[in-house]
Amino acid sequence: MVTKLKFVIVCGGDTAEAMISARTCREIAEEVVLVEKDSNKRSVFEKLGDVFFIEGDIVNLPIHEYVNLKEVNAVLALTGRDEVNFLILALAHSYGVPIRIGVFRSAHIANIVKKLQLGIPIVKPSFLGKLLKQ
Fold this sequence. Notes:
Elements: E1 5-10, H1 14-21, H2 23-28, E2 29-36, H3 42-48, E3 51-55, E4 74-77, H4 82-94, E5 99-104, H5 107-115, E6 120-123, H6 124-133
Parallel strand pairs: 1-2, 1-4, 2-3, 4-5, 5-6
């Protein structure tokens, strides 16, 4: 039996789309909440499956009014802004979300995330460089 997870994904870009459309994700996801400021992406994600789409910029959005973060299993911070992803992981950490992953451009900020144990940082340039090296 697979444990079903509740995900919150911040930023509905290509990474979020690829993840949500993957069969394995659909098998383990009980609920997917997507926070995205671009309203045009709503139809794209709703076609992928049962996605609760919250329209708005996470910086100005009281996420706790939409989602009980104490019931969330995983938060993925995928915005293109390191400082926003940092804050998302810090918020998720304060609510005790067990899986917290953020994408960062700056290795320095990623190291701070790791040192503070706010989550798992993925450094985009390093990840791509290692992939190309292989």
